[in-house]
């Protein structure tokens, strides 16, 4: 555990007391490149939000190694595209970790903004108003901002949405460059072929991890089948998950987490999860 | 030349109350117009209006206790405004309710209390004073107060500029890199209240929001960047104040509405002739480039 970048300790995240991530234990190694896959509603984005800290855990904790700075590209950005800003203004927000509230932007900073735009294939777009960008161009702009943040931990939530295949190739190359620079990267992806080709490790989620480890092992047909059986809907009157009822640390070894997590037999009543 | 002097310079040169009105309203524009730009960009244009109503019970409380005195009424207004701003802001930040709904709820309650308090004592003339203000009767006390408010506003805006822009442009991003998101929102609401209170002696609680929003709304039609937009809004604010005061002097009109209507004229002109206005979009943009 010496070179853990992130440690999940019995982490439960969710909304309105319904868990979207349920009792997650495990670690993300420093310098690892992990794909996070799973069906809709399986908790991928929720996990990302929990790691960044915009969603507070309902139980347990995410422990970041000291000094680790995170950059986060959300799936649903709260970006206001009608705001009068240029591409360069939006990307420059990525200088925040370096310059903060009051630090002046130097010539060097401006150069690094241009270089970041160049790296995502948007060289010369500096002066464009953001409301004139296409969806894919905006996504690449946000990528440039992540690039500029120069973070040790990079969290990308479905970064390839609305991006054409050539650009997906460029962005994958960028991710691999980060990987080469020993940064820790987690990417939510839907395209399993893309995952098999480019990501060494995979976390397969269905509210709890179905499988977690080397990509080829994780994406075995039986694991995928198990993930697909996952029941997306909330049970409005699902029984309360009592803390004493299960023994953490044994059942949640992250390479064999297929623990069914069934409390019904303790209560003897209540509807069963399908 | 004499005619021009008589029209534009003499009213200010000859009368101290006109000078004071000019200084007071120009200072107000300097602080309120940039705040208005951000209110507009955050789609909170009507929140300014709501806040202006919310100030009423505080001002009324000051009026009940001390009569028509600027300081107690201002402090009362400030307290009422901050309670409503913080309350509505907190409800929207920490519950599922959006800011527009919580703001509406808080200001309506506040307004009802205010009207109740004014009607307990006081004639309708007093109510008219609170509601519509008297820019031509600004005393030194009021000018000093406005000066202080402007200084606080400009300094806060300078310090928090980057956070304010980030909070408007991409709040989720700001939350992921800094804890300033919520504080900046509340500081901003504080500035709104401060500037409305600063304006209500001069323009009244109902119209002080006009000097905040109209120049900002007009400036939106001329530029696609925030910094020039703020500068332009201030310039439009200045022009409206000067035009409004002259109009009020020469035609014996009430000064507050005259100032706001001048800003309204600039607004309509901007809709039509602005570089991002109707005519440009309809006529000139029929031509297009090859790439």
From TrEMBL, chain A:
CDD domains: ABC_Metallic_Cations. Residues 6-232 form the ABC transporter domain. Keywords: ATP-binding, Ion transport, Nucleotide-binding, Transport, Zinc, Zinc transport. GO terms for molecular function: ATP binding; ATP hydrolysis activity. SUPFAM superfamilies: P-loop containing nucleoside triphosphate hydrolases. The keyword Zinc applies. PROSITE patterns: ABC_TRANSPORTER_2. It comes from the Bacteria. Residues 243-267 have a biased composition (Basic and acidic residues). One of its GO terms (biological process) is zinc ion transport. Pfam families: ABC_tran (PF00005). Residues 241-274 are annotated as: Disordered. Belongs to the ABC transporter superfamily. This is ABC transporter. It comes from Mesorhizobium helmanticense.
TrEMBL record, chain B:
GO terms for cellular component: ATP-binding cassette (ABC) transporter complex. Gene3D superfamilies: ABC transporter involved in vitamin B12 uptake, BtuC (1.10.3470.10). SUPFAM superfamilies: ABC transporter involved in vitamin B12 uptake, BtuC (SSF81345). Coiled coil: none annotated. InterPro entries: ABC_BtuC-like, ABC_TroCD. Its main location: membrane. GO terms for biological process: response to zinc ion; transmembrane transport. It is found in: Cell membrane; Membrane. Belongs to the ABC-3 integral membrane protein family. NCBIfam families: AztB. This is Zinc ABC transporter permease. It comes from Mesorhizobium helmanticense.
């Amino acid at each position: 555990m010496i070179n853990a970048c992130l440690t999940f300790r019995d982490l439960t995240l969710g909304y309105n007391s319904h868990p979207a991530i349920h009792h997650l234990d495990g670690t993300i190694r420093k310098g690892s490149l992990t794909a996070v896959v799973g069906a809709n509603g399986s908790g991928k984005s929720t996990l990302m939000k929990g790691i960044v800290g915009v969603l507070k855990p309902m139980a347990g904790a995410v422990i970041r190694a000291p000094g680790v700075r995170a950059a986060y590209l959300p799936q649903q950005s709260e970006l206001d595209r009608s705001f009068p800003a240029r591409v360069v203004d939006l990307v420059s927000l990525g200088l925040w970790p370096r310059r903060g509230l009051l630090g002046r932007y130097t010539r060097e900073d401006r150069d690094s903004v241009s270089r970041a735009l160049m790296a995502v294939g948007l060289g010369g777009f500096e002066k464009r108003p953001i409301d004139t960008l296409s969806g894919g161009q905006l996504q690449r702009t946000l990528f440039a901002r992540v690039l500029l943040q120069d973070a040790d931990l990079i969290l990308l939530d479905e970064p390839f949405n609305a991006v054409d295949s050539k650009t997906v190739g460029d962005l994958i190359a960028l991710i691999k460059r980060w990987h080469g620079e020993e940064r820790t990267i987690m990417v939510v992806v839907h395209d399993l072929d893309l995952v098999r080709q480019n990501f060494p490790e995979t976390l397969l989620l269905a509210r709890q991890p179905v499988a977690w480890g080397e990509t080829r092992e994780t994406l075995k047909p039986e694991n995928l089948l198990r993930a697909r059986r996952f029941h997306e809907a909330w049970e409005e009157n699902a029984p309360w998950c009592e803390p004493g009822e299960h023994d953490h640390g044994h059942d949640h070894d992250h390479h064999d987490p297929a623990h069914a997590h069934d409390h019904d037999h303790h209560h003897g009543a209540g509807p069963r999860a399908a | 030349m004499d005619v021009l002097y008589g029209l534009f310079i003499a009213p200010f040169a000859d009368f101290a109350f006109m000078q004071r009105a000019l200084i007071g309203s120009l200072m107000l524009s300097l602080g309120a117009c940039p705040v208005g730009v951000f209110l507009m960009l955050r789609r909170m244009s009507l929140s300014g209006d709501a806040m202006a109503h919310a100030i009423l019970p505080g001002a009324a409380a000051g009026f009940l206790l001390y009569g028509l005195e600027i300081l107690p009424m201002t402090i009362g207004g400030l307290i009422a405004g901050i309670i409503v701003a913080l309350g509505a802001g907190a409800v929207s930040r920490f519950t599922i309710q959006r800011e527009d709904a919580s703001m509406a709820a808080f200001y309506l309650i506040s307004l009802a209390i205010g009207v109740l308090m004014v009607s307990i004592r006081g004639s309708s003339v007093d109510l008219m004073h609170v509601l519509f203000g008297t820019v031509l009767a600004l005393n030194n006390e009021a000018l000093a107060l406005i000066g202080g408010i402007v200084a606080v506003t400009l300094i806060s805006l300078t310090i928090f500029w980057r956070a304010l822009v980030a909070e408007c442009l991409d709040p989720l991003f700001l939350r992921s890199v800094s804890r300033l998101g919520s504080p900046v929102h509340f500081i901003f609401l504080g500035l709104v209240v401060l500037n409305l209170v600063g304006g209500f002696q001069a323009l009244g609680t109902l119209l002080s929001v006009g000097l905040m929003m109209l120049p900002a709304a007009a400036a939106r039609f001329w530029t696609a960047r925030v910094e020039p937009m703020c500068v332009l809004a201030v310039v439009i604010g200045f022009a409206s104040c000067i035009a409004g005061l002259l109009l009020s002097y020469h035609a014996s009109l009430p000064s507050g509405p005259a100032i706001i209507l001048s800003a309204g004229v600039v607004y309509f002109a901007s809709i039509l002739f602005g570089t991002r206005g109707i005519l440009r979009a309809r006529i000139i943009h029929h031509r297009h480039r090859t790439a």
